[in-house]
Amino acid sequence: MIKPGLKIGLILSAILVLPSLFFSAYEIGNLNQNEQVIDSIYLSQLESILFSVNQYSNDVLSGWANQLEKEGANLEEILEKNYSIDAICLVDSNNFQLFPKEKIPDDSLKILGNKLDEVYQDNLTKLESLQRYLKSGYQKIEFIDCDIYGKSICAFASLIDSSKVRSVFLLLNTNKFISENLGPKIQGIAQDRFFISAFKKDGNKEIYSNVVHEDEEKNIQQKKDFWLFPDYQLGIQMKGNTVEDLVRKRTRTNVILLLIMDVILLLAAWFVYRNIRQQIRLTQLKSDFISNVSHEIRTPLALINMYSETLEMGRISNEEKKHEYYKVINTEANRLSRMVNNILNFNKIESGRREYHFTKGNLKEEVESLLENYRQHLDKKGFQIDMFLDANLPDIKMDKEAVSEAIINLIDNAMKYSNNIKYIRIETEMKETFACLKITDHGIGIASADLSLVFDKFFRVSSGDLAYKAKGSGIGLSIVKHIMDAHNGKVEVESKLGEGSCFSLCFPIHQIK
Ligand code: ADP
Which residue puts its alpha carbon closest to atom 11 of ligand 1? Predict the structure, then answer.
């Protein structure tokens, strides 16, 4: 059969501990996956910010294309207003017009014109397809790959009138375009939350950043190509904590919280288990107590019964024998009354109703008066009593009745748990600020493992022949402890199995001066 304690442990594990441990293990296993999902969501958000920057640069160029298409568009004004456009070139099958931003010498103008013409010839197919797009209602803007003084060329098709189409080249200063045309937009998007930068692909040289402070550490995480300028890239990073930092921090916090939760749960389960185990033990001890007490009461009652009946029937004529019978009845009645008193006092302690009445008293006097009545009982049982009581022991504050009760409990135990050597030593001594009474026997002693338990209510040592056979209820020492606590004193025990025990009652003396 499974022990009740083990059963409760198993039930607690099945109901509480295992599911939560399983849940934690599952969650911790999933955290990495969650981390990846959150990571990809963050990254796609960053990506969409870069997308909007790219979208905006297309919008800027579309705006210019619209302006150029308007009837009587003033090219000088457009050039003047937009620093990043270095030149505009309008080309159709019969016409080639070049409008530079600044006046340049004729020969330079001619060289530039020739170069642009070359670009035009080289990209005829692309330009034709742009015109086709326009005719179908979509004005596409394309980057033209060439090298004219390090400038970028963007081309689109534009209507001259409803039937004629021409190609337009915008000769752009890319760096200026990014910083002046896109800069304000980037600042607006990034605010205080992101670093957004533009780089030249080859050499990874940063040509623009929304952050001016050099000391802010940048570790660009997400990069995207510029749609308009294939040689350039846009980069974005969160300010302060990076996405990985945030996700890692979150994961770490989650793991820590889960572990804390598990530890708390394990502790709680352990406390519940310990509590229930204690309750089971107490219930077991209580049931032992009832059977012990019934047993203990029955013996003196049987003796009293037997001797009183014999006397009543008048069968005993010998006076000496009669006297002996009366003595037995008296002793057994006293034993019974001590036992009942113990139980009643224990009950009062348990229900918190026990009251103490303190007066000034002396340990030596108390022991002497007690032994006056008790010595006979000890002699009869064959015990030798040695007393070493210090006449100069200071007075203490005590409840005399309770102190006598404690001493009798200890002497009774010394008698009960002594085998062949029937010797009890009672002595007083001063220990720091305590006046102590020591009761020593040479009985069966107590195993060190049981020493801390003997003051627990209902506890009885169950191993060893005598300990097992000796009658008792397991409440005597718990009463002694309670009495000593009420006196702000202490009860201590030193014992060696097979050699004997020494119990000390120590009372504080500083309270009485
Ligand atoms: P009981 O009624 O069983 O004597 P107590 O509370 O007085 O109950 O003592 C608790 C247990 O401590 C006893 O059952 C016994 O095993 C042990 N004990 C107490 N006093 C002595 C002693 N002087 N020598 C050996 N064992 C003792």
Answer: 460
144, with CB counted inside 10 A (0-12, 13-18, 19+), is buried
| Locus of tokens 């203490």 | 396
Pocket probe mutation, ligand 1, options 296, 416, 471, max atoms within 8 Å of Cβ: 416
pLDDT tens, 418-429? 988 999 999 999
pTM above the 0.85 mark? no
Q: What is the largest CA-CA distance in the chain?
A: 163
Query: What is the domain partition of the chain in residue ranges?
Result: 85-172, 356-508
- Do 437 and 407 form a contact (C-beta atoms < 8 A)? yes
pLDDT tens readout for residues 264-311: 888 888 888 888 888 888 888 888 888 878 887 888 899 899 999 989
Give yes or no for residue 413 CB within 6 A of ligand 1.
Answer: yes
Which string of b and e fits 168-182 if b means at least 16 CB within 10 Å?
bbbbbbbbbbbbebb
* Token pair of 242 as six digits: 């990076």
Q: What is the CATH number of domain 356-508?
A: 3.30.565.10
Q: Which of 460, 466, 493 to mutate to test the pocket of ligand 1 (most atoms within 8 A of CB)?
A: 460
